[in-house]
Amino acid sequence: MLMCRDLAGIASDYIDGELTGRQNVSVKMHLMMCKDCRTFIGNLRASTNLMKAHSSGKPDEELMRRIDERVTEALQAWKKNNGDN
């Protein structure tokens, strides 16, 4: 079973359609059961779309890596403070 912290690590790949079929099914099953992760994916998708809409080219890979790390850290901190896995 996919855990919230696992989803955070592959969320960008999920949104970009880069997961295997099995991973994609695991994410979808988790999202059916986890409101917080549905919100997280929705926010990440909206942020990604906003960046694409306001960018003239491909985002800086280093910037994207730092954003991914911070989002993951924030989700982990939130989950820890709210007693969720």
Automatic annotation (TrEMBL):
Keywords: Metal-binding, Zinc, Zinc-finger
InterPro entries the UniProt entry points to: Anti_sigma_zinc_sf, Znf_put
Keyword presence, Metal-binding: yes
Any one GO molecular function term: zinc ion binding
Pfam families associated with the record: zf-HC2 (PF13490)
Every Putative zinc-finger domain range: 4-38
Segments forming a coiled coil: none
Descriptive protein name: Putative zinc-finger
UniProt organism field: Marinobacter antarcticus
